[in-house]
């Protein structure tokens, strides 16, 4: 088993989340620039080449769209239009952010500085790179979870395995926030549940409560069974027992 003596080179979930949040800011700005560029192009086209149907439109273009821009601002809009923006990549970006910020993931309660400090402290326990990465991503604080992540913990930490696991759990716990920061609240599942409201109440098994008519269900099932006893060949209804050899050929 190879022991890690340096900080892990793989990206943790918190590093991925930070990267996606920065990318989202860039994509939002790019989307706004593309929308503005297209709106200005339409406004200039209507002003230069007016059509009869444009005169019948109740709304008018914002006069600010016809105002000239500086050369630098115009270049920003032109570059944004050439770059374009993929709806699929934006959807994937948002879904991954929501997954990492879900309440069953500790990523939203971590900080980049805390993860870096935790990865550095875990090097003192002679853990593998994979174990360090798992501990940073899952942020377990209970010994039972640590036993599942750290291979052969009893042998490697003999004779004080429990004390060593408690120490690791405390180090992980010290890097976790009590709740996600305000900038991540829009992506957390607790925020969606608290702000959504109006959701239909579900039963214990996950089904919406309602009345089930057993007599109707039994009658429908019996009718379906009767229909299955017949096959139709050439428009003639034939019982199963009346079929002849070769009818289905």
UniProtKB/TrEMBL annotation:
Keywords for this protein: DNA-directed RNA polymerase, Nucleus, Transcription
GO MF annotations, alphabetized: nucleotide binding
SUPFAM superfamilies to which the protein is assigned, alphabetical: HRDC-like (SSF47819)
Major subcellular site: nucleus
Protein location: Nucleus
UniProt xrefs under SMART domains: RPOL4c
Compositionally biased region (Acidic residues): 59-72
Skewed-composition ranges (Polar residues): 179-191
GO CC, alphabetical: RNA polymerase III complex
Superkingdom as given in the UniProt entry: Eukaryota
InterPro entries noted in UniProt: HRDC-like_sf (IPR010997), RNA_pol_Rpb4/RPC9_core (IPR006590), Rpb4/RPC9 (IPR005574), Rpb4/RPC9_sf (IPR038324), RPC9 (IPR038846)
Family: Belongs to the eukaryotic RPC9 RNA polymerase subunit family.
Record's protein name: DNA-directed RNA polymerase III subunit RPC9
Gene Ontology terms describing biological process: transcription initiation at RNA polymerase III promoter
Biased composition (Basic and acidic residues): 49-58
Region annotation Disordered: where it falls in the sequence: 49-72, 179-210
Domain RNA polymerase Rpb4/RPC9 core: start-end pairs: 58-179
One family name in Pfam for this protein: RNA_pol_Rpb4
